[in-house]
Design goal:
Layout (H helix, E strand, L loop, with lengths): L1 H25 L4 H13 L7 H25 L4 H5 L1 H24 L9 H28 L7
């Protein structure tokens, strides 16, 4: 199961990070600041946006994504609907990830940061989580688990 987790992490993680760079850039935030913010999750306030902290932020981002992918890969063979309907399942997983990230993790880690409240902000977050993260993960899982050597259903 390592190969689909690595593949899903690289694809969904890269798409999500590029999306974060794009949407943050539209709001005037450079990529280094995005990665600094990501690094601040587990490490607290990062004093400057340096290349070192950008690498840490990138590693944190892909580490979180690997956990998201691994969770789906472990659930998929136990829930055949996830494999039969990867687009719908990926969309649903994206919504679940968005709810967890923006309504549980962020408020616990950054209690003073406002929650998503504009249609634009919510739409770009859902686009990223559903289309760029959930669907690729679900399609990779469906392809992996449907192979004859791994078929369980």
């Amino acid at each position: 199961m390592v190969k689909p987790i690595v593949l899903g992490t690289l694809i969904a993680g890269t798409l999500d990070l590029l999306s974060a760079f794009l949407f943050a850039g539209m709001a005037g935030m450079p990529p280094m600041a995005v990665l600094r913010f990501v690094a601040s999750g587990p490490f607290g306030e990062v004093p400057t946006a340096t290349a070192g902290w950008a690498i840490v932020g990138t590693l944190v981002h892909f580490g979180i994504m690997a956990m998201m992918v691994a969770a789906y890969m472990m659930a998929a063979p136990r829930m055949p609907a996830l494999l039969r309907h990867p687009i719908a399942a990926g969309m649903a997983y994206g919504v679940l990830l968005w709810l967890v990230m923006y309504w549980l993790v962020r408020p616990m880690r950054w209690p003073d940061m406002p929650l998503p409240h504009t249609a634009w902000g919510i739409a770009n977050q859902l686009f990223s989580h559903c289309i760029l993260v959930g669907i690729p993960i679900a399609l990779i899982a469906a392809r992996f688990w449907r192979r004859p050597a791994f078929a369980t259903a």
